[in-house]
Amino acid sequence: MPANQHRLLRFTSDGPWRWWRQLSQRELTMATATAAIVFFLLVLSPFPKTSRTFGGTNVITSEADSEWVPFTPLSKAQQNSAFCLDGSLPGYHLKRGFGSGSDSWLIHVEGGGWCSNITSCSDRKKTKLGSSTYMDKQDQFLGILSHHPVQNPDFFNWNKVKVRYCDGSSFSSRPRPDTEFQNGTELFFRGQLIWDTLMDELLTIGMSKARQAILTGCSAGGLAILIHCDDFRDLLPKDTDVKCLADAGFFPNESLRVFKYGNIGIGNSLFYIDGKNKVSFYSIASFAPSIRKDIVGNHGIESFYHDVVHLQGIAKSLNHDCVARSGEPSKCFFPQEFIGNIRTPVFLVQPAYDFWQIENIYVPKLSDPQGSWRKCRLNIFNCNSNQLEVLHVFMYAGYRNSLLRTLDGFQNKPKWGMFINSCFIHCQTWAAGTWHSPTSPRINSKTVAETVGDWYFERESAIRVDCPFPCNPTCYNKDLSAG
Ligand SMILES: *[C@@H]1O[C@H](CO)[C@@H](O)[C@H](O)[C@H]1NC(C)=O
Ligand SMILES: *[C@@H]1O[C@H](CO)[C@@H](O)[C@H](O)[C@H]1NC(C)=O
Ligand SMILES: *[C@@H]1O[C@H](CO)[C@@H](O)[C@H](O)[C@H]1NC(C)=O
User: Fold this and answer.
1) Cα distance from N-terminal residue to C-terminal residue, the chain
2) Whose CA is nearest to atom 3 of ligand 3?
3) From 76, 320, 371, 450, which residue has the greatest number of CB atoms within 10 Å?
4) For this UniProt entry, which segments traverse the membrane (predicted)?
Protein backbone atom coordinates (compact mmCIF):
# COMPACT_ATOMS: atom_id res chain seq x y z
CA MET A 1 0.00 0.00 0.00
CA PRO A 2 1.42 3.35 -1.00
CA ALA A 3 0.72 4.70 2.40
CA ASN A 4 3.57 7.12 2.56
CA GLN A 5 2.39 9.02 -0.48
CA HIS A 6 -0.99 9.56 1.05
CA ARG A 7 0.33 10.35 4.38
CA LEU A 8 -1.70 12.80 6.33
CA LEU A 9 -0.09 12.20 9.57
CA ARG A 10 -2.22 12.80 12.60
CA PHE A 11 0.33 11.61 15.06
CA THR A 12 2.94 8.98 15.38
CA SER A 13 3.11 7.22 18.61
CA ASP A 14 5.73 5.23 20.35
CA GLY A 15 2.85 3.81 22.21
CA PRO A 16 1.17 4.71 25.41
CA TRP A 17 2.39 1.28 26.54
CA ARG A 18 5.97 2.31 26.51
CA TRP A 19 5.64 3.69 30.01
CA TRP A 20 4.51 0.33 31.26
CA ARG A 21 7.57 -1.37 29.88
CA GLN A 22 9.68 1.31 31.48
CA LEU A 23 8.26 1.20 34.95
CA SER A 24 10.73 2.47 37.42
CA GLN A 25 11.83 0.49 40.42
CA ARG A 26 9.79 2.70 42.68
CA GLU A 27 6.64 2.14 40.66
CA LEU A 28 7.19 -1.58 40.67
CA THR A 29 7.56 -1.49 44.42
CA MET A 30 4.29 0.38 44.67
CA ALA A 31 2.54 -2.12 42.41
CA THR A 32 3.84 -4.93 44.59
CA ALA A 33 2.61 -3.18 47.71
CA THR A 34 -0.81 -2.73 46.14
CA ALA A 35 -0.90 -6.42 45.28
CA ALA A 36 -0.02 -7.22 48.88
CA ILE A 37 -2.88 -5.07 50.14
CA VAL A 38 -5.29 -6.75 47.74
CA PHE A 39 -4.01 -10.11 48.96
CA PHE A 40 -4.52 -9.02 52.55
CA LEU A 41 -8.09 -7.94 51.82
CA LEU A 42 -8.80 -11.17 50.01
CA VAL A 43 -7.44 -13.47 52.63
CA LEU A 44 -8.05 -11.65 55.87
CA SER A 45 -11.07 -9.50 55.20
CA PRO A 46 -13.97 -9.58 57.62
CA PHE A 47 -16.35 -9.66 54.64
CA PRO A 48 -17.96 -12.86 53.44
CA LYS A 49 -15.69 -14.77 51.10
CA THR A 50 -16.53 -14.43 47.46
CA SER A 51 -16.33 -17.34 45.11
CA ARG A 52 -15.90 -15.97 41.65
CA THR A 53 -17.50 -17.42 38.59
CA PHE A 54 -16.59 -14.67 36.37
CA GLY A 55 -18.08 -12.77 33.52
CA GLY A 56 -20.58 -15.20 33.74
CA THR A 57 -23.50 -14.41 35.63
CA ASN A 58 -23.01 -14.74 39.26
CA VAL A 59 -20.55 -13.84 41.87
CA ILE A 60 -21.95 -15.59 44.84
CA THR A 61 -21.21 -14.59 48.35
CA SER A 62 -22.37 -16.98 51.03
CA GLU A 63 -25.71 -18.77 50.72
CA ALA A 64 -27.22 -16.61 53.43
CA ASP A 65 -26.50 -13.47 51.40
CA SER A 66 -28.13 -14.69 48.24
CA GLU A 67 -31.76 -14.18 47.65
CA TRP A 68 -33.82 -16.06 45.11
CA VAL A 69 -36.76 -14.08 43.82
CA PRO A 70 -39.66 -15.66 41.90
CA PHE A 71 -40.73 -14.76 38.36
CA THR A 72 -44.02 -12.86 37.99
CA PRO A 73 -45.67 -12.86 34.54
CA LEU A 74 -47.08 -9.47 33.54
CA SER A 75 -50.75 -9.70 34.46
CA LYS A 76 -52.04 -7.70 31.49
CA ALA A 77 -49.64 -9.15 28.92
CA GLN A 78 -52.26 -11.37 27.28
CA GLN A 79 -54.87 -8.61 27.24
CA ASN A 80 -52.41 -6.10 25.73
CA SER A 81 -50.83 -8.60 23.30
CA ALA A 82 -47.50 -7.81 24.91
CA PHE A 83 -45.68 -11.04 24.09
CA CYS A 84 -42.14 -12.33 24.02
CA LEU A 85 -40.84 -13.08 20.51
CA ASP A 86 -42.45 -16.54 20.60
CA GLY A 87 -45.83 -15.43 21.99
CA SER A 88 -45.14 -16.43 25.60
CA LEU A 89 -45.80 -14.02 28.49
CA PRO A 90 -43.01 -11.68 29.62
CA GLY A 91 -42.44 -10.80 33.24
CA TYR A 92 -40.22 -9.65 36.06
CA HIS A 93 -38.92 -10.49 39.51
CA LEU A 94 -39.97 -8.23 42.40
CA LYS A 95 -38.43 -7.91 45.84
CA ARG A 96 -40.28 -5.45 48.06
CA GLY A 97 -38.38 -2.68 49.82
CA PHE A 98 -38.41 -2.22 53.56
CA GLY A 99 -37.81 0.42 56.25
CA SER A 100 -36.62 3.73 54.86
CA GLY A 101 -36.46 2.15 51.38
CA SER A 102 -40.19 1.39 51.15
CA ASP A 103 -40.89 4.36 48.88
CA SER A 104 -37.82 3.92 46.69
CA TRP A 105 -37.75 1.88 43.48
CA LEU A 106 -34.90 0.44 41.47
CA ILE A 107 -35.77 -1.14 38.12
CA HIS A 108 -33.03 -3.25 36.51
CA VAL A 109 -33.41 -4.32 32.90
CA GLU A 110 -31.71 -7.50 31.76
CA GLY A 111 -29.54 -7.48 28.63
CA GLY A 112 -28.80 -10.02 25.89
CA GLY A 113 -28.12 -8.46 22.48
CA TRP A 114 -30.62 -8.04 19.63
CA CYS A 115 -31.85 -9.98 16.61
CA SER A 116 -31.72 -8.51 13.15
CA ASN A 117 -33.40 -10.95 10.78
CA ILE A 118 -36.11 -13.60 10.64
CA THR A 119 -33.59 -16.40 11.09
CA SER A 120 -31.82 -14.98 14.12
CA CYS A 121 -35.11 -13.89 15.75
CA SER A 122 -36.54 -17.36 15.17
CA ASP A 123 -33.47 -18.92 16.76
CA ARG A 124 -33.91 -16.60 19.72
CA LYS A 125 -37.46 -17.89 20.25
CA LYS A 126 -35.90 -21.15 21.41
CA THR A 127 -33.95 -19.43 24.20
CA LYS A 128 -34.79 -17.53 27.38
CA LEU A 129 -34.00 -14.32 25.47
CA GLY A 130 -37.02 -14.88 23.24
CA SER A 131 -39.34 -16.93 25.39
CA SER A 132 -40.34 -17.04 29.05
CA THR A 133 -40.81 -20.81 28.65
CA TYR A 134 -37.04 -21.16 28.93
CA MET A 135 -36.49 -18.66 31.73
CA ASP A 136 -35.49 -19.70 35.22
CA LYS A 137 -38.49 -19.21 37.44
CA GLN A 138 -36.30 -17.77 40.17
CA ASP A 139 -33.50 -15.29 39.92
CA GLN A 140 -30.75 -14.50 42.34
CA PHE A 141 -30.56 -10.85 43.39
CA LEU A 142 -26.95 -9.75 43.77
CA GLY A 143 -24.91 -6.57 43.44
CA ILE A 144 -27.19 -3.59 42.83
CA LEU A 145 -30.17 -5.90 43.43
CA SER A 146 -28.88 -7.27 46.74
CA HIS A 147 -30.85 -6.67 49.94
CA HIS A 148 -27.66 -6.97 51.95
CA PRO A 149 -26.18 -3.66 53.19
CA VAL A 150 -22.62 -4.97 53.04
CA GLN A 151 -23.02 -5.80 49.34
CA ASN A 152 -25.29 -2.91 48.43
CA PRO A 153 -24.81 -0.03 50.90
CA ASP A 154 -27.10 2.62 49.37
CA PHE A 155 -29.97 0.68 47.82
CA PHE A 156 -30.27 -2.53 49.85
CA ASN A 157 -33.71 -1.73 51.25
CA TRP A 158 -35.29 -0.31 48.09
CA ASN A 159 -38.04 -2.04 46.13
CA LYS A 160 -36.23 -3.90 43.37
CA VAL A 161 -37.46 -5.19 40.06
CA LYS A 162 -35.48 -7.25 37.62
CA VAL A 163 -37.12 -7.07 34.19
CA ARG A 164 -36.62 -10.09 31.94
CA TYR A 165 -35.66 -9.47 28.33
CA CYS A 166 -37.41 -11.54 25.67
CA ASP A 167 -38.12 -9.21 22.72
CA GLY A 168 -34.74 -8.77 20.97
CA SER A 169 -35.15 -5.00 20.52
CA SER A 170 -34.19 -3.36 23.84
CA PHE A 171 -37.93 -3.02 24.59
CA SER A 172 -38.65 -0.84 21.59
CA SER A 173 -40.07 -3.04 18.81
CA ARG A 174 -43.60 -2.46 17.52
CA PRO A 175 -46.04 -4.82 15.79
CA ARG A 176 -45.36 -4.95 12.06
CA PRO A 177 -47.74 -7.10 10.08
CA ASP A 178 -45.31 -7.13 7.16
CA THR A 179 -42.52 -8.77 9.14
CA GLU A 180 -44.11 -10.31 12.22
CA PHE A 181 -45.66 -13.24 10.42
CA GLN A 182 -43.51 -13.44 7.32
CA ASN A 183 -42.76 -16.63 5.45
CA GLY A 184 -44.70 -18.83 7.85
CA THR A 185 -42.64 -17.73 10.84
CA GLU A 186 -44.54 -16.56 13.87
CA LEU A 187 -42.61 -13.74 15.51
CA PHE A 188 -43.97 -11.10 17.85
CA PHE A 189 -42.24 -7.71 17.84
CA ARG A 190 -43.79 -6.29 21.00
CA GLY A 191 -40.92 -4.73 22.94
CA GLN A 192 -42.57 -1.33 23.36
CA LEU A 193 -45.88 -2.95 24.35
CA ILE A 194 -44.07 -5.04 26.95
CA TRP A 195 -42.46 -1.87 28.30
CA ASP A 196 -45.75 0.05 28.50
CA THR A 197 -47.56 -2.88 30.11
CA LEU A 198 -44.76 -3.32 32.62
CA MET A 199 -44.75 0.36 33.58
CA ASP A 200 -48.53 0.32 34.13
CA GLU A 201 -48.18 -2.71 36.37
CA LEU A 202 -45.32 -1.28 38.44
CA LEU A 203 -47.19 2.00 38.92
CA THR A 204 -50.23 0.06 40.12
CA ILE A 205 -48.30 -1.99 42.65
CA GLY A 206 -46.72 1.02 44.36
CA MET A 207 -44.25 2.74 42.06
CA SER A 208 -46.64 5.65 41.49
CA LYS A 209 -45.85 6.71 45.07
CA ALA A 210 -42.09 6.47 44.66
CA ARG A 211 -40.10 9.30 46.20
CA GLN A 212 -36.84 8.03 44.73
CA ALA A 213 -36.32 5.93 41.60
CA ILE A 214 -33.50 4.56 39.50
CA LEU A 215 -33.97 3.00 36.09
CA THR A 216 -31.00 0.80 35.31
CA GLY A 217 -29.97 -2.01 33.00
CA CYS A 218 -26.98 -3.74 31.54
CA SER A 219 -25.85 -4.15 27.91
CA ALA A 220 -28.96 -4.25 25.66
CA GLY A 221 -30.83 -3.44 28.88
CA GLY A 222 -28.55 -0.42 29.33
CA LEU A 223 -29.50 0.75 25.87
CA ALA A 224 -33.18 0.13 26.72
CA ILE A 225 -33.01 2.38 29.76
CA LEU A 226 -31.34 5.17 27.78
CA ILE A 227 -34.11 4.90 25.18
CA HIS A 228 -36.84 4.97 27.84
CA CYS A 229 -35.22 7.20 30.46
CA ASP A 230 -37.20 10.41 29.93
CA ASP A 231 -40.50 8.57 29.46
CA PHE A 232 -39.88 6.78 32.73
CA ARG A 233 -39.17 10.10 34.40
CA ASP A 234 -42.43 11.54 33.09
CA LEU A 235 -44.47 8.63 34.49
CA LEU A 236 -43.50 9.50 38.05
CA PRO A 237 -44.55 12.48 40.20
CA LYS A 238 -42.69 15.74 39.51
CA ASP A 239 -40.98 15.80 42.90
CA THR A 240 -39.72 12.22 42.68
CA ASP A 241 -35.95 12.03 42.37
CA VAL A 242 -35.55 10.01 39.14
CA LYS A 243 -32.24 9.03 37.56
CA CYS A 244 -31.01 6.54 34.96
CA LEU A 245 -27.98 4.27 35.17
CA ALA A 246 -26.70 2.51 32.04
CA ASP A 247 -24.24 -0.33 32.63
CA ALA A 248 -22.19 -1.26 29.53
CA GLY A 249 -24.97 0.21 27.40
CA PHE A 250 -22.98 2.74 25.42
CA PHE A 251 -22.44 1.01 22.07
CA PRO A 252 -20.24 2.97 19.69
CA ASN A 253 -20.46 3.25 15.91
CA GLU A 254 -17.03 1.83 15.26
CA SER A 255 -15.46 -1.24 13.86
CA LEU A 256 -11.97 -2.23 13.02
CA ARG A 257 -10.95 -3.76 9.82
CA VAL A 258 -7.67 -5.57 9.67
CA PHE A 259 -6.14 -5.35 6.22
CA LYS A 260 -3.20 -7.11 4.77
CA TYR A 261 0.15 -5.60 5.59
CA GLY A 262 -1.10 -4.98 9.12
CA ASN A 263 -3.26 -2.00 8.29
CA ILE A 264 -6.25 -1.40 10.40
CA GLY A 265 -9.05 0.98 9.59
CA ILE A 266 -11.74 2.43 11.74
CA GLY A 267 -14.19 5.26 11.42
CA ASN A 268 -12.49 8.01 9.54
CA SER A 269 -8.97 6.92 10.12
CA LEU A 270 -6.67 4.17 9.17
CA PHE A 271 -3.50 3.31 10.82
CA TYR A 272 -0.53 1.37 9.87
CA ILE A 273 1.80 -0.66 12.00
CA ASP A 274 5.20 -1.10 10.46
CA GLY A 275 7.81 -3.72 11.25
CA LYS A 276 9.27 -1.52 13.92
CA ASN A 277 6.03 -1.35 15.87
CA LYS A 278 5.47 2.23 14.94
CA VAL A 279 1.84 3.14 14.57
CA SER A 280 0.97 5.90 12.16
CA PHE A 281 -2.41 7.46 11.68
CA TYR A 282 -3.84 8.66 8.40
CA SER A 283 -7.09 10.20 7.43
CA ILE A 284 -8.94 7.92 5.06
CA ALA A 285 -9.73 11.00 2.99
CA SER A 286 -6.13 10.78 1.85
CA PHE A 287 -6.59 7.36 0.26
CA ALA A 288 -7.66 6.41 -3.25
CA PRO A 289 -11.44 6.06 -3.59
CA SER A 290 -11.24 2.28 -4.08
CA ILE A 291 -9.45 1.82 -0.79
CA ARG A 292 -11.77 4.28 0.92
CA LYS A 293 -14.82 2.32 -0.06
CA ASP A 294 -13.37 -0.83 1.39
CA ILE A 295 -12.76 0.85 4.70
CA VAL A 296 -15.99 2.78 5.02
CA GLY A 297 -18.02 -0.17 3.75
CA ASN A 298 -17.28 -2.25 6.77
CA HIS A 299 -19.52 -0.80 9.43
CA GLY A 300 -20.66 -4.03 10.97
CA ILE A 301 -22.53 -2.59 13.90
CA GLU A 302 -24.12 0.16 11.85
CA SER A 303 -25.68 -2.19 9.32
CA PHE A 304 -26.62 -4.61 12.10
CA TYR A 305 -28.50 -1.85 13.95
CA HIS A 306 -30.06 -0.78 10.68
CA ASP A 307 -31.49 -4.29 10.23
CA VAL A 308 -32.65 -4.55 13.86
CA VAL A 309 -34.44 -1.21 13.72
CA HIS A 310 -36.12 -1.83 10.38
CA LEU A 311 -37.11 -5.46 10.93
CA GLN A 312 -38.65 -4.76 14.31
CA GLY A 313 -40.35 -1.43 13.59
CA ILE A 314 -38.36 0.40 16.23
CA ALA A 315 -38.27 3.88 14.67
CA LYS A 316 -41.24 5.34 16.57
CA SER A 317 -39.75 4.33 19.92
CA LEU A 318 -36.54 6.29 19.37
CA ASN A 319 -35.76 9.85 20.37
CA HIS A 320 -37.90 12.03 18.11
CA ASP A 321 -35.46 14.93 17.95
CA CYS A 322 -32.69 12.56 16.97
CA VAL A 323 -34.75 10.88 14.25
CA ALA A 324 -35.85 14.24 12.86
CA ARG A 325 -32.27 15.48 12.86
CA SER A 326 -30.55 12.46 11.40
CA GLY A 327 -33.20 11.30 8.96
CA GLU A 328 -32.27 7.65 9.41
CA PRO A 329 -33.95 6.15 12.50
CA SER A 330 -31.35 3.42 13.01
CA LYS A 331 -28.72 6.07 13.73
CA CYS A 332 -30.69 6.87 16.85
CA PHE A 333 -30.10 3.39 18.22
CA PHE A 334 -26.56 4.63 18.94
CA PRO A 335 -26.47 6.36 22.35
CA GLN A 336 -23.88 8.84 21.06
CA GLU A 337 -26.57 10.22 18.75
CA PHE A 338 -29.30 10.84 21.35
CA ILE A 339 -27.74 10.83 24.80
CA GLY A 340 -27.32 14.61 24.61
CA ASN A 341 -31.10 14.91 24.23
CA ILE A 342 -31.86 13.08 27.47
CA ARG A 343 -33.21 15.48 30.13
CA THR A 344 -33.02 13.15 33.12
CA PRO A 345 -29.66 12.74 34.93
CA VAL A 346 -27.75 9.75 33.54
CA PHE A 347 -24.84 7.76 34.88
CA LEU A 348 -22.69 5.52 32.67
CA VAL A 349 -20.79 2.54 34.00
CA GLN A 350 -18.58 1.49 31.14
CA PRO A 351 -15.45 -0.64 31.00
CA ALA A 352 -13.03 1.03 28.60
CA TYR A 353 -12.07 -2.44 27.34
CA ASP A 354 -15.55 -3.92 27.11
CA PHE A 355 -15.00 -7.51 25.95
CA TRP A 356 -18.41 -7.76 24.34
CA GLN A 357 -17.68 -4.69 22.25
CA ILE A 358 -14.22 -5.92 21.29
CA GLU A 359 -15.70 -9.26 20.28
CA ASN A 360 -18.74 -7.96 18.45
CA ILE A 361 -18.10 -4.38 17.42
CA TYR A 362 -14.46 -3.36 17.29
CA VAL A 363 -12.87 -6.58 16.08
CA PRO A 364 -15.64 -8.93 14.99
CA LYS A 365 -14.45 -12.26 13.56
CA LEU A 366 -15.44 -11.22 10.05
CA SER A 367 -13.10 -8.27 10.09
CA ASP A 368 -10.20 -10.46 11.11
CA PRO A 369 -10.05 -13.28 8.57
CA GLN A 370 -6.46 -14.10 9.45
CA GLY A 371 -7.33 -14.55 13.09
CA SER A 372 -4.55 -12.32 14.31
CA TRP A 373 -6.84 -10.96 17.01
CA ARG A 374 -8.28 -14.31 18.07
CA LYS A 375 -6.30 -14.71 21.29
CA CYS A 376 -6.50 -11.04 22.18
CA ARG A 377 -10.28 -11.08 21.88
CA LEU A 378 -10.44 -13.86 24.44
CA ASN A 379 -8.11 -12.48 27.04
CA ILE A 380 -6.64 -9.01 27.17
CA PHE A 381 -3.37 -10.36 28.57
CA ASN A 382 -2.88 -12.16 25.24
CA CYS A 383 -2.93 -8.90 23.29
CA ASN A 384 0.40 -7.76 21.93
CA SER A 385 1.53 -4.19 22.34
CA ASN A 386 0.17 -3.14 18.92
CA GLN A 387 -3.22 -4.56 19.72
CA LEU A 388 -3.24 -2.91 23.12
CA GLU A 389 -2.38 0.32 21.41
CA VAL A 390 -5.30 -0.06 19.03
CA LEU A 391 -7.63 -0.75 21.95
CA HIS A 392 -6.15 2.16 23.80
CA VAL A 393 -6.70 4.61 20.98
CA PHE A 394 -10.14 3.48 19.91
CA MET A 395 -11.66 2.30 23.13
CA TYR A 396 -9.99 4.04 26.04
CA ALA A 397 -9.24 7.37 24.40
CA GLY A 398 -12.27 6.95 22.12
CA TYR A 399 -14.68 6.65 25.04
CA ARG A 400 -13.13 9.43 26.92
CA ASN A 401 -13.34 11.81 24.02
CA SER A 402 -16.63 10.66 22.68
CA LEU A 403 -18.37 10.67 26.05
CA LEU A 404 -16.93 13.93 27.17
CA ARG A 405 -17.71 15.53 23.81
CA THR A 406 -21.22 14.12 23.70
CA LEU A 407 -21.91 15.36 27.16
CA ASP A 408 -20.39 18.68 26.31
CA GLY A 409 -17.79 18.27 29.00
CA PHE A 410 -20.69 17.93 31.45
CA GLN A 411 -21.03 21.71 31.40
CA ASN A 412 -24.74 21.43 30.84
CA LYS A 413 -25.20 18.19 32.71
CA PRO A 414 -24.08 18.83 36.27
CA LYS A 415 -26.06 15.91 37.65
CA TRP A 416 -24.57 13.36 35.28
CA GLY A 417 -21.75 10.99 36.08
CA MET A 418 -19.60 8.15 34.83
CA PHE A 419 -17.38 5.32 36.00
CA ILE A 420 -15.09 4.28 33.14
CA ASN A 421 -12.63 1.67 34.30
CA SER A 422 -9.85 0.06 32.30
CA CYS A 423 -10.96 -3.52 32.74
CA PHE A 424 -11.74 -6.35 30.30
CA ILE A 425 -15.29 -7.01 31.43
CA HIS A 426 -18.85 -6.27 30.31
CA CYS A 427 -21.60 -5.64 32.91
CA GLN A 428 -20.51 -4.68 36.41
CA THR A 429 -23.55 -3.66 38.44
CA TRP A 430 -25.35 -6.94 39.02
CA ALA A 431 -22.53 -9.11 40.29
CA ALA A 432 -21.38 -8.74 43.88
CA GLY A 433 -17.73 -9.02 42.92
CA THR A 434 -17.77 -6.08 40.55
CA TRP A 435 -20.40 -3.92 42.25
CA HIS A 436 -19.16 -3.73 45.81
CA SER A 437 -16.89 -6.15 47.59
CA PRO A 438 -13.45 -5.96 49.15
CA THR A 439 -12.00 -7.10 45.82
CA SER A 440 -14.13 -4.99 43.46
CA PRO A 441 -12.65 -2.78 40.77
CA ARG A 442 -12.05 0.72 42.06
CA ILE A 443 -11.17 4.12 40.71
CA ASN A 444 -9.63 6.49 43.26
CA SER A 445 -10.41 3.85 45.87
CA LYS A 446 -14.16 3.97 45.14
CA THR A 447 -16.17 0.97 43.95
CA VAL A 448 -18.88 1.17 41.28
CA ALA A 449 -21.48 1.07 44.09
CA GLU A 450 -19.89 3.94 45.99
CA THR A 451 -19.58 6.05 42.85
CA VAL A 452 -23.19 5.39 41.85
CA GLY A 453 -24.24 6.32 45.41
CA ASP A 454 -22.19 9.54 45.25
CA TRP A 455 -23.93 10.38 41.98
CA TYR A 456 -27.49 9.49 42.92
CA PHE A 457 -27.41 11.23 46.30
CA GLU A 458 -25.22 14.06 44.98
CA ARG A 459 -22.69 13.50 47.75
CA GLU A 460 -19.80 14.51 45.52
CA SER A 461 -18.79 14.76 41.88
CA ALA A 462 -19.06 11.32 40.33
CA ILE A 463 -17.02 11.44 37.16
CA ARG A 464 -14.38 8.77 37.59
CA VAL A 465 -12.24 7.82 34.61
CA ASP A 466 -9.45 5.29 35.00
CA CYS A 467 -5.86 5.38 33.76
CA PRO A 468 -5.25 3.11 30.71
CA PHE A 469 -4.90 -0.69 30.89
CA PRO A 470 -3.04 -2.35 32.62
CA CYS A 471 -2.64 0.34 35.26
CA ASN A 472 -5.48 -0.67 37.56
CA PRO A 473 -4.64 -3.67 39.79
CA THR A 474 -8.20 -3.83 41.13
CA CYS A 475 -9.69 -4.91 37.76
CA TYR A 476 -11.54 -8.10 37.16
CA ASN A 477 -10.45 -9.13 33.71
CA LYS A 478 -12.49 -11.85 32.12
CA ASP A 479 -10.75 -14.81 30.55
CA LEU A 480 -13.02 -15.93 27.71
CA SER A 481 -10.62 -18.65 26.67
CA ALA A 482 -11.44 -20.51 29.86
CA GLY A 483 -14.70 -21.53 28.18
C1 LIG B 1 -29.04 -12.97 10.40
O2 LIG B 1 -28.33 -12.40 11.49
C3 LIG B 1 -27.27 -13.19 11.95
C4 LIG B 1 -26.74 -12.55 13.21
O5 LIG B 1 -26.45 -11.21 13.02
C6 LIG B 1 -26.22 -13.31 10.86
O7 LIG B 1 -25.13 -14.09 11.29
C8 LIG B 1 -26.86 -13.95 9.64
O9 LIG B 1 -25.94 -13.97 8.58
C10 LIG B 1 -28.10 -13.18 9.23
N11 LIG B 1 -28.81 -13.94 8.22
C12 LIG B 1 -29.28 -13.38 7.11
C13 LIG B 1 -30.03 -14.28 6.21
O14 LIG B 1 -29.11 -12.20 6.87
C1 LIG C 1 -39.66 -13.90 2.89
O2 LIG C 1 -39.18 -14.70 1.82
C3 LIG C 1 -38.97 -13.99 0.63
C4 LIG C 1 -38.59 -15.01 -0.46
O5 LIG C 1 -37.67 -15.94 0.04
C6 LIG C 1 -37.88 -12.94 0.83
O7 LIG C 1 -37.66 -12.22 -0.36
C8 LIG C 1 -38.34 -11.99 1.91
O9 LIG C 1 -37.31 -11.06 2.19
C10 LIG C 1 -38.65 -12.77 3.18
N11 LIG C 1 -39.19 -11.86 4.17
C12 LIG C 1 -38.55 -11.58 5.25
C13 LIG C 1 -39.18 -10.58 6.15
O14 LIG C 1 -37.49 -12.12 5.57
C1 LIG D 1 -20.99 5.59 11.60
O2 LIG D 1 -19.69 5.84 11.10
C3 LIG D 1 -19.62 5.99 9.68
C4 LIG D 1 -18.17 6.21 9.29
O5 LIG D 1 -17.54 7.06 10.17
C6 LIG D 1 -20.50 7.15 9.23
O7 LIG D 1 -20.49 7.22 7.82
C8 LIG D 1 -21.92 6.91 9.72
O9 LIG D 1 -22.74 8.01 9.39
C10 LIG D 1 -21.93 6.72 11.23
N11 LIG D 1 -23.25 6.41 11.69
C12 LIG D 1 -23.78 6.98 12.75
C13 LIG D 1 -25.09 6.47 13.16
O14 LIG D 1 -23.22 7.86 13.37
Assistant:
1) 38
2) 267
3) 450
4) 28-47
